[in-house]
Design brief:
The chain has about 775 residues and is an alpha+beta fold. It has three domains: about 20-45; about 85-270, Orthogonal Bundle (Penicillin binding protein transpeptidase fold), CATH 1.10.3810; about 430-775, Beta-lactamase (3-Layer(aba) Sandwich). A five-stranded mixed beta sheet has the order 2-1-3-13-14, with helices on one face. The longest helix has about 40 residues, at about 1-45.
């Protein structure tokens, strides 16, 4: 027995040694296997890994920014990712603290992998929190992708995350990693990255975020679809409070601050960013066309083209965000009242053809509606789907749910597509543009009343008859060629250009709209009151070819026929062209091509483009100044005189409020011209001060949609108020520096502009439909 006991004692050390040996073999093998696994992952054996170059410059889709001249973001171009990166210094301290406290408390102590957190996750199978660090989450967002549901694939993804996280930690500073993490995350509702999130959910820049706002956004990192402030405000508030509790736990805020902030309700200032929202919607759409042309002509160094939706370009425009805002406000303020009056006058009881004018033939109405049907988006989509024409036409008469535009907000209704097209024709359209004549820089651009519902841009894309706003070109030609003075007089009597002259097939005998053909008129008085017969006399003396040539040299690219009738504004010309041309008069006879982009930079700030002004001498300084002096008469005693006066207020039962008369009373020098086309189809006004020219157009989508009376349909009633409201807002903002001074006078002026000693018939006494004298003191 003793011998057996000795043998057992001798066997136990041997067994223990074997156990220890195998333990270390297994342990060492495990470590080696893990090391080998990581090594294989780093070599790409478990799937492609990002190279050093890609780690240096991670490829993320960056929205291109449209920036105003005063540094504001007007909008962005993007397809799916509305992302604009910000640097670490632009992130508020509380935002960073909230992230670290909630997502990775030991972020500053590890090198990409939190060992304690990993061990805890394995020990408790993730029940006490995950082990992913901020660096690992960034790695997943940038390079790995959505976690697979397959256990094996998910495991290899996790290993790749660890490897990439450690590489990111070697490549970037902690601050850079945090900034990248905030910039890459999708906060939902087109809020890609922290800058978009701050702007969309709170209407501010990231560095302006409050603690509770920062906590809300950090809380969304858990699951932005679940914690969506628009759909789940209660859940978002609860999650925000969890983040605040974490900030207190790790001593970033005191208990008192935590409690007070948790008591606050969730306050969202939702500002959706889309191509139909924000400032300058029509301008941004026009700018996109400019950019598409620019990227074709300016490739990258490697020959590929820039992508305005992905490459994060910074497009610095000439638009002033303040002026753009004032322009949009002025248009809305006036058009709401003008539209109410149009509805009032065009009920079916008052006008069976409404919204078309009462004198329009039914076949013209049918044609206009049919054309609208065939040009509609519904027609285009169904045609693309291969539907038959019969089927498409039938669909326009079936009632369906839809949302319509109104000045009181969107309206949900049930209506046939055909009836909806007729309904939209009730709405008068408008456009407005403002530019600096010395530089050609466009400062405001409003292409229509609502970009979501009315896409067509009436600043440059649309062209309409311009009426009397063309007359300054006739006067400028006469002054330039004949050296006429504003004080020179001409007969106001009937006048005809005979058959055969200028290719006329019959005599051209324009009439004065007020029926007055008596006496003599100075040129200044004639232009001020839009006297057609005197404009015709000037056209006959200089010839249509010369007037046409001058308009083209002034930048008008639209087709202008070589006919005497152009004197009264028969050509279709865009507002954009007209303002560029008028700018020449204020800019001492030098034409400056309107410009909308001052500079383009890539995402790294490298300048890719800087504009160079395109200029040309068109008129002498004295001729240009004389034309401006002529147009000053329009606002002093002519069709634009309401800018100077104050009309009487009047109670209007339709609006159930007092309609203010002319609340303008401008005292400073203003040159300008109204324009009203045949049957009141188009109303124009272009007004100028020494450093700013602005113009407005108002009319129906179809020329047959119009006011019946000139009292409402003249340029002085339809368009001039937009200009006046805009300028009032500009003058109320001294930071804009809009001039109230005199137009610069040439040192040598040989043309007489002082008409005070001219003893002719009073030019100011005419009654003109464009004048305010027959408008009852009410401004719509």
């Amino acid at each position: 027995m003793a011998k057996k006991q000795v043998k057992k004692t001798q066997e136990e050390p041997t067994t223990f040694k074997k156990f220890i040996k195998w333990f270390w073999i297994v342990f060492g093998g495990g470590i080696a296997s893990i090391f080998l696994l990581f090594l294989l992952a780093s070599w790409g054996a478990l799937g492609e890994m990002p190279s050093f170059e890609i780690l240096e410059n991670p490829q993320t889709n960056l929205a291109s920014q449209v920036l105003s001249s005063d540094g504001e973001i007007l909008g962005k171009y993007y397809l799916r990712d509305n992302r604009t990166p910000v640097g670490y210094k632009e992130l508020p301290k509380d935002l960073v603290n909230a992230l670290v406290a909630t997502e990775d408390a030991r972020f500053y102590d590890h090198s990409g992998i939190d060992v304690r957190g990993t061990i805890r996750a394995f020990a408790f199978l993730g029940k006490r929190g995950g082990a992913s660090t901020i660096s690992q989450q960034l790695a997943r967002q940038l390079f790995v992708g959505v976690r697979s549901r397959n256990i094996f694939s998910a495991g290899t993804q996790k290993i790749k995350e660890w490897v990439i996280a450690t590489r990111l930690e070697r490549q970037y500073t902690k601050e850079e990693i945090i900034a990248m993490y905030f910039n890459i995350y999708d906060f939902n509702n087109n809020a890609d990255g922290i800058r978009s999130a701050a702007r969309i959910y709170f209407g501010k820049e990231p560095n302006e975020l409050k603690i509770e706002e920062s906590a809300m956004l950090v809380g969304m990192f858990k699951n932005s679809s679940l914690y969506n402030p628009r759909r789940n405000p209660e859940g978002v508030k609860n999650r925000r409070d969890v983040v605040l509790a974490q900030m207190y736990k790790y001593d970033y805020i005191s208990e008192k601050i935590k409690d007070s902030l948790q008591d606050l309700p969730l306050k969202i200032n939702y500002n959706p960013e889309s191509h139909n929202a924000g400032l300058g919607t029509y301008f941004r759409e026009h700018l996109k066309k400019f950019m598409k042309s620019w990227v074709r002509e300016n490739p990258k160094d490697d020959g590929t083209r820039y992508n305005i939706n992905f490459d994060g370009l910074k497009i610095y425009t000439t638009i002033d965000s303040r002026m753009q805002k004032y322009a949009e406000e002025a248009m809305e303020e006036h058009m709401k009242k003008l539209q109410a009056e149009f509805f009032h006058q065009n009920t079916k009881k008052r006008n069976k053809n409404a919204p078309f004018a009462a004198d329009v033939e039914q076949k013209s109405i049918d044609y206009a509606i049919e054309r609208a049907v065939r040009q509609s988006e519904r027609w285009r989509v169904m045609k693309k789907e291969g539907r038959s024409e019969k089927e498409i036409i039938a669909s326009f008469d079936k009632k369906i749910p839809m949302t319509l535009f109104t000045w009181k907000g969107e309206k949900d209704t049930i209506m046939s597509p055909r009836d909806s097209l007729i309904f939209t024709k009730y709405y008068l359209r408008a456009s407005f543009m403002s530019l600096e004549p010395q530089t050609g820089q466009v400062k405001a651009w409003v292409g229509g009343i609502n970009h979501k519902y009315f896409k067509y841009d009436m600043v440059k894309q649309g062209r309409r008859q311009i009426g009397s706003t063309f007359k300054p070109f006739v006067y400028a030609s006469a002054i330039d060629q004949l050296h006429l003075s504003p004080c020179d007089s001409m007969p106001n009597g009937p006048f005809c250009i005979e058959t055969g002259k200028y290719g006329l097939l019959e005599p051209w005998c324009p009439k004065n709209s007020n029926g007055d053909y008596e006496g003599m008129r100075t040129l200044k008085g004639a232009l001020a009151n839009s006297v057609n017969t005197i404009t015709a006399r000037l056209m006959d003396r200089v010839g249509p070819a010369n007037v046409r040539s001058l308009a083209q040299r002034l930048g008008v690219e639209s087709e202008i026929p070589e006919a005497p009738s152009i004197a009264l504004g028969t050509p279709d010309i865009s507002l954009y062209e007209m303002l560029g041309a008028y700018g020449t008069f204020v800019n001492r006879g030098v034409y400056v091509k309107p410009v909308i982009v001052s500079r383009i930079e890539d995402k790294n700030g490298t300048v890719l483009y800087e504009f160079v002004p395109e200029t040309k001498d068109v008129l002498s300084e004295e001729v240009a100044y004389t034309v401006v002096n002529l147009m000053e008469g329009v606002t002093q005693s002519g069709s634009g005189v309401r800018l100077r006066t104050k009309g009487a207020d009047k109670w209007n039962p339709m609006y159930k409020e007092i309609i203010t008369g002319y609340p303008y009373e401008f005292k400073n020098p203003i040159a300008g011209k109204t324009g009203t086309t045949q049957n009141n189809s188009d109303g124009w006004f272009i007004g100028m001060v020494p450093n700013l020219i602005s113009g407005a157009w108002v009319g129906g989508e179809d020329r047959q949609v119009r006011f019946a009376r000139t009292k409402y349909g003249a340029g002085a009633s339809m368009a001039l108020p937009i200009w006046a409201l805009f300028m009032k807002k500009c003058y109320a903002d001294p930071s804009l520096g809009v001039s109230k001074g005199n137009f610069p006078k040439p040192e040598e002026l040989t043309i007489n502009i002082d008409c005070s000693k001219v003893t002719k018939k009073d030019d100011e006494g005419q009654k003109n439909p464009d004048n305010n004298q027959n408008n009852d003191g009410i401004d719509f």
